[in-house]
């Protein structure tokens, strides 16, 4: 494995807690310079996997290499190569923002001058310079999470683990964190993200791995996963129940009397072509409709489909 291109490689991971199989043959490869999202229902093994990658849990079987280091043989080297940001901010709210970052720098072994210099760099990178001398207790939720992520980057890790970084944040705070994550990757750090928000994975992840019952049940880009459900569809909503049959005949789709909608599966030409064909057919038939829209499968639908039966 080349750690410059594959900062995380896991093969055949098994972890049991009594009769429970938390991990059941997990394989995972994370490419450098990307955001890789790890999704799954409660009990799917996400937290156990991250703990194993970060040397916090030892697996019963399998191999994990982080930044080229084996987690069993070289745990100290692995810890030196990673940053870990948990679900809840690990900040001292009595201290100022700058003081928190200096404290983390000192805890990581930086000298006083180095710690101050690194703190200033991170405050500037995360747009927190103006708030640097305010107590963290006065920060908004988004600002706290940005500062927490900055603290995880004090040692310039090759790989940063982010565990549900936007839990409990409002839309503005979530957007602030998303921008911070993009900045982290642009600066050269690879991110492994666990999240309960599928739109977050859709927005941020270059690649997505879905876990179910301790193993990988789906993997790919967001578009690749959505394509597994059959691609684009055109949804036509009739103006009345009386028009429904004629609309369905005109566009060649399947009618749903309850919703007064007709669904047309996009063919080889793709969704845009199917949409244009539907509009032309309706115009030729002299039919007015309430709505016509092009719809792709959502990541939520993919998630429910591939994890069916694996939730705890």
**Name given to the CATH homologous superfamily of the largest domain:** P-loop containing nucleotide triphosphate hydrolases
What is the overall number of helices? 11
Order of strands across the biggest sheet? 6-7-8-3-9-10
Radius of gyration, in angstroms, nearest whole number: 24 Å
The helix/strand order is EEEHEEHEHHHEHEHEEHEHEEHEH
Mean pLDDT over the residues? 92
Secondary-structure class = alpha/beta
The fraction of residues in strands falls at: 25-35%
State the end-to-end distance.
34 Å
How helical, in percent, are the residues? 25-40%
Q: In CATH terms, what is the fold-level topology of the largest domain?
A: Rossmann fold
Oligomerization status of the protein chains: single chain
Please describe the biggest sheet, giving its number of strands, its sense, and whether it closes into a barrel: 6 strands, mixed
What's the shape? globular
Give the CATH architecture of the largest domain.
3-Layer(aba) Sandwich
CATH class of the largest domain: Alpha Beta
Number of strands: 14
Ranges where pLDDT stays below 50 over 5 or more residues in a row are none
> Into how many domains do the coordinates divide?
2
Structure description:
Helices cover 36% and strands 26% of the residues. The chain folds into 2 domains: 219 residues, P-loop containing nucleotide triphosphate hydrolases (Rossmann fold, 3-Layer(aba) Sandwich), CATH 3.40.50.300; 64 residues, 2-Layer Sandwich (Alpha-Beta Plaits). It is an alpha/beta fold and 312 residues long. It contains 11 helices and 14 strands. Strands 6-7-8-3-9-10 form a 6-stranded mixed β-sheet, sandwiched between helices.
């Amino acid at each position: 494995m080349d750690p410059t291109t594959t900062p995380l490689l896991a093969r055949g991971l098994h972890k049991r807690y009594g009769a429970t199989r938390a991990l059941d043959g997990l394989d995972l490869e994370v490419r450098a310079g990307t955001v890789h999202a790890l999704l799954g229902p409660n009990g799917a093994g996400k937290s156990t996997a991250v703990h194993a990658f970060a040397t916090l849990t030892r697996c019963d079987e399998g191999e994990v290499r982080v930044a080229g280091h084996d987690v069993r043989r070289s745990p100290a080297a692995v810890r030196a190569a990673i940053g870990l940001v948990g679900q809840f901010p690990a900040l001292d709210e009595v201290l100022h923002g700058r003081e928190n970052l200096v404290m983390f720098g000192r805890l990581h072994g930086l000298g006083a001058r180095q710690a101050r210099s690194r703190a200033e760099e991170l405050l500037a990178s995360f747009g927190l310079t103006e708030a640097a001398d305010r107590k963290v207790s006065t920060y908004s939720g988004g600002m706290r999470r940005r500062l927490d992520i900055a603290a995880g980057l004090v040692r310039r890790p090759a790989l940063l683990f982010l565990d549900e970084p936007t839990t409990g944040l409002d839309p503005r705070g979530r957007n602030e964190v998303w921008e911070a994550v993009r900045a982290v990757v642009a600066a050269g750090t690879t991110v492994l993200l666990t999240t309960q928000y599928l739109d977050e994975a859709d927005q941020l992840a270059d690649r997505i791995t879905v876990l179910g019952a301790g193993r990988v049940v789906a993997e790919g880009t967001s578009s690749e996963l959505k394509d597994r459900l059959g691609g684009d569809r055109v949804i036509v909503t009739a103006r009345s129940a009386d028009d429904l049959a004629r609309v369905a005949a005109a566009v060649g789709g399947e009618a749903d009397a309850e919703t007064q909608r007709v669904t047309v599966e996009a063919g080889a030409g793709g969704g845009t072509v199917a949409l244009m064909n539907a509009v032309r057919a309706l115009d030729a038939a002299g039919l007015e409709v309430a709505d016509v829209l092009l719809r792709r499968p959502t990541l939520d639908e993919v998630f429910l489909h591939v994890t069916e039966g694996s939730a705890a």
